[in-house]
Model the fold of this input.
Amino acid sequence: MARDDYGAQVEAEFLEEAQDTTSELEVTVGNIRSGAIPAVEGTQRIRTLVARLNMLGAATDFPLLDLALRRFRDYIADLDQPTEFNLDDYGTFVDVLRGLLSGEIESSTDNAEFFRSLPTRRPFDLADVAHLNVEILLIEPQRSSAAIIGRELQNCGYKVTTVRTAMEALELAVRTRPDLVISSAVLDVLSGIDVGCALAAMPATEGIPFCILTSFERNNAFLARLPANAAYLSKGGSFGADLAEALRRFRIT
Done:
């Protein structure tokens, strides 16, 4: 079989299975809404189906699908009792997935605009906190810390995407152009300082505000090579005050 024929066969098989999985997602959302299955059980099923789509898509070239599934995974990560509002967002994700798989949403669509258009978790009380159209990329390898910090940012109304590794963060920053990047100082093969320097050096990301999140003191030698305009966020009790100062300084409201 010629390579082009093989590639076409792989894509056709992917599309068929992905469309079947998306249909199952739609049915599951409807079953949760109607009470045919408990919300916790249904949401766990949705997580399984999204994970299946993610594995299927790994072998194909559908970059927008990767972004949609990333945001969907973040949305349902710790949500076991979805409200009607959440179920509406689930439905939106299903519609987007169908559009991507059918070609109705073109692959040439701008990555950043597409990503910003996808649903994100909102604060519980929108009367008190305005839901802002601000994208924050959070780089934090510890799941527990990422969940706590991410939730605090979401409750302030911001859209939050969490990643665990430096390389993943750099790729996502280039593709989605967030309004702010917050990185833990200690990561993996690259440090948060490396991430900040890389973002400042690349034309595609040099204008993105950057914050280092650390338990080191501001004058610690480990932080000496941070870009001059980077902001400092303490992992201690002053995190909220430090974040407020950084947002004021970067004019993010």
